[in-house]
Amino acid sequence: MSNTGVYVLWLYLPQTMSIGIGKLGTFQFDRGVYAYAGSAQRNLQQRLARHRRLEKKLHWHIDYFRAKAHFLGAASFFDQPKSAECLLTQELLKIPGAFFPVPGFGASDCRCESHLVRVALAEPRLRINIS
C-alpha cells in the first residue's frame, strides 16, 4: 500500500466556542461537523494517526482545532499529488450548506480560500463517547 496521498478528516465540535488557531488568530466556531482536506507526501498513515491523537505538539492549523474537536473518521486517497487536497476541498463545498468558516485555514501553501469546511447539514444523531 502506498504511503502518500490526500485525506479528509471528519471532526465534530460539541459546542460553539472561540479557538485560537496559531498565528492565524482566534475565531468563533459553531457547534457541528467539519471536514478538513490535507495531504501527506510521505507517511500518510502516520499523519492520520497523529490527527487522531490529542496529545501532540500543536504545529498545523488543524492541530489547534482538533484539540477541541472529536475525531469522527478519515477518508484516504492514496497516490494522489498534493494539489488533490485543493480539489477535495472544492468537492466538499458542493455539499449543500457547506462553507468556509475561517479564511486561510490550512491553506498557507496554496491559493485556496481555506481547507476547513463547515458541513451544516451533517449532525451526529447519537450521543456516543467519541474522542
Report on the architecture of this protein.
The chain is of the alpha+beta class and 131 residues long. It has one domain (5-119). 18% of the residues lie in helices and 30% in strands. It is built from 3 helices and 6 strands. The chain has helices at 44-52, 61-66, 84-92; strands spanning 5-13, 17-20, 26-29, 32-40, 70-78, 116-119. It has a 4-stranded antiparallel beta sheet with strand order 5-1-4-6. It has a two-stranded antiparallel sheet with strand order 2-3. Strand 2 (17-20) and strand 3 (26-29) form a beta hairpin. The protein is globular, with a radius of gyration of 14 Å. 29% of the residues are buried.
Give me some keywords for this one.
alpha+beta; 131 residues; two-stranded antiparallel sheet; single chain; four-stranded antiparallel beta sheet; 3 helices
Brief summary:
The chain contains 3 helices and 6 strands; from the N terminus they run ββββααβαβ. It has 131 residues and is of the alpha+beta class.
